[in-house]
Amino acid sequence: MDLGISGKRALVCASSKGLGRGCAESLAQAGVNLVLNGRTAASLNATADHIRDTYGVQVDVVLADVATADGQAALLAASGDVDILVNNAGGPPPGLWSDWNREDFIAALDANMLAPIALMKALLPGMIDRGWGRVVNITSGSVKAPIPQLGLSNAARAGLTGYVAGTARQVAANGVTINNMLPGIHATDRAISLDQGVMAANGIDMDAARAQRQATIPAKRYGTAAEFGATCAFLCSQHAGFIVGQNIVLDGGAINATI
Question: N or C: which end of the chain has fewer CB within 10 A?
Answer without folding.
Answer: C
